Amino acid sequence: MASKNQSEFQDFLPLMADKLGGEGLIGELCNGFQLLMDANKGVITFDSLKKNSSLLGLQDLTDDDLRSMLKEGDFDGDGALNQMEFCVLMFRLSPNLMEQSEFLLEEALEHEFDQM
To answer: Which listed site, 50, 83, 103, 116, has its alpha carbon 20 to 30 Å from 62?
Structure first.
């Protein structure tokens, strides 16, 4: 997925998870989704990703990289990413975070149960 000219991807999600906790991390992922999405369609499209990717430091990604990203996360095959698909993709692209995901899930569930 990475282009030849692209510098190696730095995985900051585990650090964010440590600092923010499960709920905070999900909130930040939702904020990232909001930055990248097409406001009229409510999903991340190729055009919205290309237009807004520099907001998240992704300006060096090629069109092929962006298309690959969309394809990788597009579970329902509609050619775009909804919020859930985006969050799942971010977790999948972060191997270190996958190791911590069980803890984050437990923390988020505990928080939800405490709210009840």
So the answer is: 83
